[in-house]
Amino acid sequence: MRISEVAERCGLSISTIRFYEKSGLCPFVQRGADGKRKFSKADSDWLELLASLRSTGMPLEEMRAFAELYASGDDKIAERKAALLAHRRRLDDRQTELDRCRVILDRKLQRYAEIMEDQA
Amino acid sequence: MRISEVAERCGLSISTIRFYEKSGLCPFVQRGADGKRKFSKADSDWLELLASLRSTGMPLEEMRAFAELYASGDDKIAERKAALLAHRRRLDDRQTELDRCRVILDRKLQRYAEIMEDQA
DNA sequence: TACCGACCTGAAGCTACTTTAGGTCAAGCG
DNA sequence: CGCTTGACCTAAAGTAGCTTCAGGTCGGTA
Prior knowledge:
Two copies of one chain form a homodimer. Chain A has a single domain (3-119), classed as Multidrug-efflux Transporter Regulator, Chain: A, Domain 2 (Orthogonal Bundle), CATH 1.10.1660.10. Chain A has helices spanning 3-10, 14-22, 41-55, 60-71, 77-119, and strands at residues 30-31, 37-38. Chain A has five helices and two strands. Chain A is elongated and about 70 Å long. By secondary structure, chain A is mostly helical. Chain A binds a DNA duplex through residues 2-4, 13-16, 18-19, 23, 34-37, 54, 59-61.
């Protein structure tokens, strides 16, 4: 698969994919004789997972550690699961924060609506 | 109110508050004769609102524009409401993305659980 | 043959902070 | 009284996570 296709699939930009490779988040991506990256289905899936971890706030450093576990195969499954469970909790925190902000925002919008009512 | 109290209340760090002031997000904060910032209740509330906008992804540039509307008082209420409504939609997008990532994460955790089952 | 589009690299630029270095001032203590 | 401590101040440098830019290599097409 070409880099543009993978970008399309996983929702990361082409430069972000290159940046991730350079940062050691997917060091296993192959190259063709022409020097271009060749992505397998597994590579694409991995980048999609990375994208969803990143977009919910996992730091690159932690993703790099996770990538290393991933690279050393199924005997690190327990550690990989632990890493994702830790992130799962962070996701719940995000949800809480999102709800909290929604309340603040909606209250403010309500107040604005009332002021505009009075002005009319 | 001292800067440390405001930081406590609104959940921003002291340096972030100073940085926000320098960036024009709260140019109205008063100073004492000693040069120290003196925050009113309104200042604190404003920073709390900023914090919740920021933590749900509003860019500083947009916050700065919002701060300008805020500074010019109640005749800009309609525009302020429009800005918050636009952000409200962004918040919904975040929610959608969060849900999407939760599904991916939970599916992955499920897979790991199965693999560990097989290994046992 | 000349150009186009998709890829490549390294380096600089950008956003939103955080950290550091160095300084002021009031309060408390021996 | 001098000394330290702690909370504040500033300007500047550092950091994370990208994005953009400048410049170069291909394979295919008019």
